Amino acid sequence: MAVGSGRRWTRWVLPTYVAVVLIYLVSPIVVMIVYSFNNSGFKKVSFRWVGFTFKWYPRVFDKPDLTAALKNSLVVAGVSTVIATTLGTMIALALVRYRFPGKGAAEMVMFMNISAPEIVLGASLLSLFITFGVPRGMVTIIIAHVMFNIAYVTVTVRARLAGFNRSLEEAAQDLGAGPWTTFWRVTFPIIFPGILAGGLLAFALSIDDFVITNFNAGQVKTFPLWVYGAVKVGIPPQVFVMGTLIFMGGVILAITNLMLQRRKV
Fold first, then answer.
1. SS3 per residue for 96-152
2. What domains can be seen in the chain, in order of their start residue?
3. How far is it, in rounded angstroms, from Cα 44 to Cα 256?
């Protein structure tokens, strides 16, 4: 009897632990979404619930400096994602399919990039830009984001290439297809879910990065940098609205990616 009751107790340990972790991770997002509808009536965030309202959503762009910071974040995330996804995909193809001097070192650098603390990456890039006299701004932010995003894209696409059947490419070439035709008609559609997943990951990491951006931004303000500065004087409700919209956009992209992967299968 005691053994049976012990088993009944232990089978709830893992579900309870998972539930606690999920609540811990989701609760800040829920608070952000809920308070984006708070009718506080103030120009700054108030955690005293007054009533439900949609008034902050039509006024989401009433703060010009906040809107400019969000635009900077979107530009940096978009440009760095395209560059990092392109370069990361090519690196993944090279690491999986070819043998060349320095391949082991290249793989080690990729994983060191992922495991290194952000403050180390940010400080090293800052030292590099100062040494070569590069003025900090949008260009240096994009360079920094491309640098740390490439590794994530490479690892994601490489995982997709691990189970790739090369006989499909060989069959296409036997039928007269050239290298480019084979890649775009055979290889690319098969590995596209991995490329899309890597691109979405790169975009998510870029748009909310603070530490590396703070080292290399100069006078440019991105959305995370603006929010950090506003905390000292008070955050306007538009921050919660923008955060909610960014989160919902990420959820939509993730669901779209999942549907595309299932359709491929």
1. HHCCCCCHHHHHHHHHHHHHCCHHHHHHHHHHHHHHCCCCCCHHHHHHHHHHHHHHH
2. 64-235 (1.10.3720.10)
3. 35
pLDDT in tens, 191-250: 888 898 899 899 989 998 999 999 998 889 999 999 888 877 777 888 888 889 888 888
Q: What pTM does this model have?
A: 0.82
What letter represents residue 18's amino acid? V
State how far the Cα of 161 lies from the Cα of 183, in Å rounded to an integer: 13
Q: Give residue-wise pLDDT tens across range 69-115.
A: 999 999 999 999 999 999 999 999 888 888 888 888 888 888 888 88
HSE toward the beta carbon, residue 93, CA cutoff 13 A? 14
* HEC readout, the chain: CHHHHHHHHHCCHHHHHHHHHHHHHHHHHHHHHHHCCECCCCCCCCCCCCCECCCCCCCCCCCHHHHHHHHHHHHHHHHHHHHHHHHHHHHHHHHHHCCCCCHHHHHHHHHHHHHCCHHHHHHHHHHHHHHCCCCCCHHHHHHHHHHHHHHHHHHHHHHHHCCCCHHHHHHHHHCCCCHHHHHHHHHHHHHHHHHHHHHHHHHHHHHCCCHHHHHHCCCCCCHHHHHHHHCCCCCCCHHHHHHHHHHHHHHHHHHHHHHHHHHHC
CA atoms within 13 A on the CB side of 222: 26
